[in-house]
Amino acid sequence: MTSYLKLAAKNILRHRTRSLLTMLGIAASVGVLFAVLSFNKGFTEGLAVELERTGLHFMIVPSGCAHEVAALVLHGAVIPKFLDTGVMEHVEGTAGIDLATPILVAQLPDQQRGKIDLIYGIEMNVLEAIKPGWEITGTIPRHEHEVLLGYEVAQHDNLQPGDHFSSPAAGVDLIVAGIVGYSGSQDDAFVYLPIQTAQNLLGYPQSATAIGVKVDDPTRIGAITESLTSTVPGIQIVTMGEVMNSVSNLAAAARALSLAIVLIAILISAVGVMNSILMAVFERTQEIGMMRAVGASRWDIFRIILNETTILALVGGVVGIVLSTLGARLIEAFVRSVMPFVPSGDLIRFDPIVALGSVAFIFVIGLCAGIYPAVKASKINPVEAIKG
């Protein structure tokens, strides 16, 4: 077996440029396949982590689109509909609810600082319960005019606990009570205020974009949501599982298109491998005839040619995995720029199972692409080949 591989490798090195271009084509297609599969896995895992970070089991919003709810939950999108916070009485009076808090999300332009603040109004007494993983420098706001800054906001304005936070609203003096430690998520980009302060600052009294709810027993979510829907008109309840499905569905079309493009690229690579090996077979017709004349069997010729295709496929596949891993951050940056929502964190990571699966797939494709040239070579008549 080793002698066949050595001979196949020598044959590949005879035409270095052609072999290199063939391998690069394989590497490109395998690299993209690995990146897409890794991203899909990382997207699902990252989305689950993002939802877990919310600390809530479901959201109550005005009747509308579930995609808007997903955007609100995961990265604070502004929804142009509001709930009357009077709904809180019905919510808090429902059996099985551990905590509930109105949430008011809005954008607040500040011309003095030349930026737009993302305001997140919430009842501060529930923050520790729904954000247990937060590391806060300072304290959670306890007074009306205190704010809690996300990491990015504090870094941008170079603020520390006790500093004044400028506000575009005249006569409102906000004090930084605390700063949320870096989380690598959308939490870093918000200015967190007590819900009443946010309502007054934004001019939306008694209004909320959503009500976040955490239940005592997650197994009873279905019964609780059904009870709320039947007693409170004009609301929509979306669980975190439904949010996950909603966002996953939004990304599914893009992932399906990516996989289709990858499969086309792999087929083109397979044709390239077949063409390269066929050219080598035609160029070595007399050589193969001599090998047959001195005792090489058709099976020997078949194995040598098939080994050449598998070497091209395997080397190209490994190179593709390496290149994709090294360029993961660039690929991820591009995907984030074109997709409406991507979970935070590194989504494209080296995964041995995904890498082995990608290489195994291209190995099979290489074998299939090499069968025809191998059969063609094994059928060469030694007498006719020597005569030329």
TrEMBL record:
Membrane spanning stretches: 20-39, 256-282, 311-331, 353-375
Location(s) in or outside the cell: Cell membrane
Matching InterPro entries: ABC3_permease_C, MacB_PCD, Macrolide_Exporter_MacB
GO cellular component assignments: plasma membrane
Cited Pfam families: FtsX, MacB_PCD
Topology of the protein relative to the lipid bilayer: Multi-pass membrane protein
Keyword Transmembrane helix: yes
Keywords: Cell membrane, Membrane, Transmembrane, Transmembrane helix
Main location as per UniProt: membrane
Keyword Nucleotidyltransferase: no
GO molecular function terms listed in the Swiss-Prot or TrEMBL record: transmembrane transporter activity
Domain ABC3 transporter permease C-terminal: 260-382
Protein family: Belongs to the ABC-4 integral membrane protein family.
Designated name of the protein: ABC transporter permease
Organism of this sequence: Pelovirga terrestris
